[in-house]
């Protein structure tokens, strides 16, 4: 099983395992998000992403999740007893990003615009709210990544 | 993608004339929306398939109960994601045989539509990487094997003549685990080997 994000190929990640990891924390996470009128990974960010864009976009998104969402939300993770799921997601995101970096040469403008749209929506929210919303939308992220998943 | 909200009547009001009202919400949008034909209803379910037809959105639904002049608070679902949570039905399976092979033609299931007049959307259009798991059972040898198939035709070769084989097929999307729903088991017999009649 592998991801084929356009020119970038990542082997050895079991997407069902990531979805299962999120499924076990989905309810706890999404209940924290009471600003349901805002969606970070909105249609304009993820719809009709070309193969060429996909590598850059998934790289930017996963890197953001690692450096901002997971990093700043770890205090809540322990509180909610979600460490196993959290580490499965974080370790696999880290692995994917490391593999993507090897095959990326230069910036892709349209992918970057999509990422900036996601990031600007995130920044408009209060930090704690934005963190729990982003974590609660991991199913949207994984489902989109599933479109590039091959057995 | 047939999405029906179900609920249980209030424990304390079993048998009483209770009515219910349902609303739904699209995650990322602004307000709760009414479902016209689920307002003041006495049944305990509401088909929200049309309202949740855009499978890439995520949804909430809520219901409240009314009895005489009393009204309960809203009870809300979790966030529902049709694209990830829907159960994909089995494909249509057509079998044709000759002496030593069975040809299988698969047709992807269609997306559920409330109104038959609506245009038909194949689940293949929604899940471009939809695949099939074909299971084959040899009645004589009692041997079963299965094969993962991407396209819609498969020929099972090197079979035994004049033997009954049963076939069952499941649709699945790589990476997005969900409960499988196999097709009806279909059994066909391979033809007699004409050369064996001459011996």
TrEMBL record, chain A:
Q: Where in the cell is it found?
A: Secreted
Q: Which domain of life is it from?
A: Eukaryota
Asked if the Swiss-Prot or TrEMBL record annotates the protein with the keyword Ribonucleoprotein, the reply is: no
User: Record keywords: DNA damage included?
Assistant: no
Molecular function (GO) terms for this protein are:
cytokine activity
GO CC terms, sorted: extracellular space
Give the record's keywords alphabetically. Cytokine, Secreted, Signal
Family affiliation: Belongs to the IL-10 family.
Q: What is this protein called?
A: Interleukin 24
> Which lineage?
Eukaryota, Metazoa, Chordata, Craniata, Vertebrata
Residues represented out of the complete protein: 66 to 216 of 216
């Amino acid at each position: 099983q592998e991801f084929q994000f356009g020119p970038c190929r990542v082997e050895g990640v079991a997407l069902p395992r990531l979805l299962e990891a999120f499924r076990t924390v989905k309810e706890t996470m999404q209940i924290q998000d009471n600003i349901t009128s805002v969606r970070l990974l909105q249609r304009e960010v993820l719809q009709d992403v070309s193969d060429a864009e996909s590598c850059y976009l998934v790289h930017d998104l996963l890197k953001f999740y690692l450096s901002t969402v997971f990093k700043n939300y770890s205090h809540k993770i322990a509180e909610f007893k979600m460490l196993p799921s959290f580490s499965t997601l974080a370790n696999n995101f880290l692995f994917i990003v490391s593999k993507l970096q090897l095959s990326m040469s230069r910036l892709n403008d349209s992918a970057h615009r999509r990422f900036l749209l996601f990031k600007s929506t995130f920044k408009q929210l209060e930090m704690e709210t934005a963190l729990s919303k982003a974590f609660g939308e991991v199913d949207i992220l994984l489902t989109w990544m599933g479109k590039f998943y091959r057995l | 993608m047939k999405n029906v909200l179900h609920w249980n009547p209030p424990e304390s009001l079993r048998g009483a004339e209770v009515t219910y009202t349902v609303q739904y919400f699209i995650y990322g949008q602004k307000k709760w929306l009414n479902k016209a034909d689920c307002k003041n209803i006495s049944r305990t379910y509401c088909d929200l398939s049309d309202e949740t037809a855009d499978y890439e959105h995520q949804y909430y639904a809520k219901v409240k109960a009314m009895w005489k002049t009393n009204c309960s608070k809203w009870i809300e679902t979790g966030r529902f994601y049709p694209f990830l949570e829907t159960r994909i039905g089995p494909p249509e399976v057509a079998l044709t045989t000759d002496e030593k092979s069975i040809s299988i033609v698969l047709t992807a299931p269609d997306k559920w539509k409330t109104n038959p007049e609506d245009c038909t959307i194949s689940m293949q259009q929604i899940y471009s990487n939809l695949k099939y798991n074909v299971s084959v059972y040899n009645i004589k040898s009692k041997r079963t094997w299965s094969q993962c198939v991407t396209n819609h035709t498969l020929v099972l070769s090197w079979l035994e003549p004049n033997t009954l084989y049963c076939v069952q097929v499941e649709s699945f999307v790589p990476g997005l685990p969900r409960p499988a729903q196999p097709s009806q088991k279909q059994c066909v017999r391979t033809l007699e080997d004409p050369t064996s009649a001459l011996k």
